[in-house]
Amino acid sequence: MALMPVQAVALAMGAPLAERLPATYHRIVARLLGFDIVVSGKMATDTPALFVGNHTSYLDAMVLGTIIEGCFIAKSEIADWPLIGWLAKLQRTVFVERRSSRTAHQRDEIGARLAAGDRLILFPEGTSDDGVKVLPFKSALFAVAETPVDGAPLLVQPFSIAYTALAGLPVGREWRPLFAWYGDMEMVPHAWRIFTFATVRAEVRFHQPVTFGQFGSRKALAEHCFEVVRHGVAEANSGRRS
User: Fold this and answer.
1) Residues with Cβ < 8 Å from 24, sequence gap 6 or more?
2) For residue 48, how many C-alpha atoms fall within 13 Å in the half-sphere facing its CB?
3) Cα distance between residue 229 and residue 226, in whole Å
4) pLDDT digits over 138-197, tens only?
5) Alpha-carbon distance 231 to 147, whole Å?
6) Closest by CA position to 190, among listed 63, 90, 56
7) Contact call for residues 199 and 167 (beta carbons, < 8 A)
8) What residues have CB less than 8 Å from 82, skipping those under 6 apart?
9) What is the CATH number of domain 3-238?
10) Domain boundaries, the chain
């Protein structure tokens, strides 16, 4: 609550602080909640860039926000949620609607943000999963990758995120949905349960960056990213590393 007016003023003034402060905020929240965030792979430092990966719950935004100085792409409904909607707006989230008639407009809006040098984070499942099985990626959400930015192909980097340990003990299949928020779950009881957890290990793995030109179609690019992310989540959940 203390940082929200600071970020609002920084946004209104167009100050560089508005891009850096969200990462500080997420790191503070992660520490307060006892999250141990483990990163593997090499995160692309290019700007602009599009990061794509699986989505388990609202916790993903906190975890990724500690690592990536960027903005999220989220469904428009989130803008109206209490507190989370305010936080999303303060982090300059790009809100998109699910109507196909809005696809071209939203592609242009996202393209403008990328042209301005933003690093954007996208969850191409279109919804949250159960923490065990990654849902197929929606190819329509990769439309922005088709258009070069300042004459150069847009860098797309897949990532995998998994919650693998609770109080130092490995999280088995039956416990993974504890971290997931999906279906008709109520947020307040779910969030309260998270607040009462001991330390939680969240693993984020960055995979090899790619471009649209390597695949030639949105569908092929989406399928590639899906397979890479799905494999990364499965490895993290099983404790294996390639």
Assistant:
1) 3
2) 24
3) 5
4) 988 898 898 888 888 999 999 999 999 888 888 877 777 777 766 666 777 777 777 777
5) 28
6) 56
7) yes
8) none
9) 3.40.1130
10) 3-238
